Amino acid sequence: MLECGLAREIVPELFDDRLLWDAALARVGYVAKRQAGALALGALLLDLPGTEIRRIVRRWGGSNELSGLLCWFAEHRDDWARAADMPLCDFKRLMAHANFNDLRVLWRFQERQATGADALSRRIARRAAAIPPAAVAPPPLLGGADLKRMGLPEGPRLGSVLRALYDAQLNEELTTRRQARKLAQAIIGRE
Predict the structure, then answer these.
(1) pTM for the complete prediction?
(2) What pLDDT does 80 receive?
(3) Are 40 and 89 contained in the same domain?
(4) What are the distances in angstroms from CA 96 to CA 75, 91, 132?
(5) What is the C-alpha radius of gyration for the chain, rounded to an integer number of angstroms?
(6) Is 3 in the same domain as 50?
């Protein structure tokens, strides 16, 4: 695209700063062997803000799904620095995304560029491998209907309690409905 003069026409946003194009080109070269179109586009646009990515994908005639994926890559581009130690619930939410492995490829590149090594990428891979697939996004132990039966009215508070319960479940602090009910009662009582 660059040699033919098309790059400036297709993604002029990457030429506002020469470093943006150079970084994008290096990332695309790194992921090219995987032959995954969405990953290559994610590598290309990774340094841009979500609003700009959406505008570019719309201009290209891409789908909302593609736009959302590329924005997700950009949103989590620097999480490689903390993913090995982030709360388990947050890590599992990332793992639950269909493109988590592609994100890890981008993280590995980002880490190598920043540090010259891939020690964190290896720790992240070990952490991901240690989590059984069924534990990544299990069905919630309690749902909104359960909390309503406990007397919690519908609204934002119900959503925040559900989030806290699911976080505890993903963090493996809860394993049964009984434990979840007990925690829900404690949270409701505190509030």
Answers:
(1) 0.88
(2) 94
(3) no
(4) 16, 9, 12
(5) 21
(6) yes
